[in-house]
Amino acid sequence: MNILVINGPNLNLLGSREPEVYGTDTLEELMMWLENSPEAAGHSFKFYQSNHEGEIIDSIHDEREWAHGIIINPAAFTHYSYAIRDAITAVGTPTVEVHLSDIHAREEFRQKSVISAVCIGQISGMGKQSYTEGIKFLSRSKS
Ligand code: DQA
Questions:
Q1: Assign residue 75 a region: left if phi > 0, alpha if psi is -120 to 50, beta otherwise?
Q2: What is the pLDDT of residue 53?
Q3: What are the two backbone dihedrals, phi and then psi, of residue 97, each rounded to the nearest 5 degrees?
Q4: Could you tell me the distance, in angstroms and rounded to a whole number, from the CA of residue 40 to the centre of ligand 1?
Q5: Owning domain of residue 35
């Protein structure tokens, strides 16, 4: 599968951003680890990070022909971006929502996702393994 991996706002600061919550890997390290994981074998990846809602929407649109699946960590946009939700619906690409932390065990505003209803799954709280679980989820949905 061709898999587009999208990381939303503030995830460019992984490594130094609240390491007790998000771990000590930088985003680049995390994405390299993902691409080299056993779960990634046989798949092709494109990685995208933006702090801007419109740019994330553009990446979903721009890769709609290429991507067979999307793994998205929408970060704070998870909780209020109807525009990203609509973009996922518009392109119809199977999408998995992932989070490093367990959003269901944190502040109340994080416990709600406006994105998950249009995704084939949500994986939360498994650290970087949330992303490899995302690959597994997409692979299963194809078979
Ligand atoms: C996050 C959880 C969000 O609530 C938060 O805004 C993030 C990261 C996670 O991966 O745990 O930026 O998506």
A1: left
A2: 98
A3: -90, 130
A4: 23
A5: 2-142
Using pLDDT thresholds of 50, 70 and 90, give the confidence band for residue 48: very high
**Residue 26, both tokens:** 């930088």
Q: What is the reported pLDDT for 143?
A: 63
CATH number, domain with residue 25? 3.40.50.9100
Mutate to test the pocket of ligand 1, among 16, 80, 100 (most ligand atoms within 8 A of CB): 100
E-only strand ranges, the chain: 2-7, 44-49, 69-73, 95-99, 121-124
Model pTM above 0.70: yes
Residue 17, ligand 1, Cβ within 6 A: no
Q: Looking at the 3D structure of the chain, how many domains does it have?
A: 1
User: From the centroid of its chain, how far is CA 106?
Assistant: 18
Question: From atom 1 of ligand 1, which residue's Cα is the shortest distance away?
Answer: 75
